[in-house]
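Format notes (please read before filing issues)

Several people have asked whether sequences and structure tokens are stored in separate files. They are not. Every record keeps both together, in the order shown below: the sequence lines, then the token lines. Line labels are part of the format and must not be stripped during preprocessing.
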Amino acid sequence: MPIKFNPLLLILLSLLPASQALADKLNIAVASNFTHTLQSLAKDFESKTNHQIRISRASTGKLYTQINHGAPFDIFFAADEHRPDKLITEGKAEAELSAIYATGKLVFISHIDPAGSCQDTLNHPAVKRVAIANPKTAPYGLAAQQTLEKLQLWKTVKSKLVTGENIAQGLQFFSTGNAQAAFVAKSMLLQDTKTSINCYWDVPANMHEPIKQKMLVLAKSSNKPASKAFWNYIQSDDAKTIIKNNGYDISY
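Then the structure lines:
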């Protein structure tokens, strides 16, 4: 049976620039804290190449589950090392195409004016709710729990916790006034200019395990050349500058 071509479609394709016709699309899964930074990186990458990027955000744990259920992602930007390493062990990614792309910073914020240091507001009677991300699925939530345990406040504060599915939801609880205090990613505060904050505490890195955020190219990527191109781009000086400017440390 002969194949029929739509003449109009052929004409439209002939009018497209060659670069657009050959462009590859990448589906990238990203932990919520890194979404805004990845958008900036994607914009810069797209301006340098013919590739297009589609971003899906959620908690690291939720994205890991989606990948295990066959979600068609090409690249995964996690907020920890644990889930990417598990994907490598499970044969869903190659170690050669994985890398620590950023180290996250945890901060504590409050709507309450502190009598002493900002962290003292954790004991303030006006603080009825403290927002954190889910420690079971979100690395920043786990870091918040570890910090509270180090301060010997976990048992005291636990009854006040309002838990977001991811760090973005935790910040939303605080921004809407549903929580008087919160542990959030520093990078997200640099992007948020509307939320009113009465005090701010940079949580020392020794209060919790390092938030080493790892990316990898997934074995089932349908666009391996484009995925490798983006993986290489993340190692570039331009990408490192964007990541640093968004509130992260980098060590690669």
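For reference, the curators noted about this record: Residues 187 and 246 are 5 Å apart (CA to CA). The chain has two domains: 7-104+210-245, 106-202.
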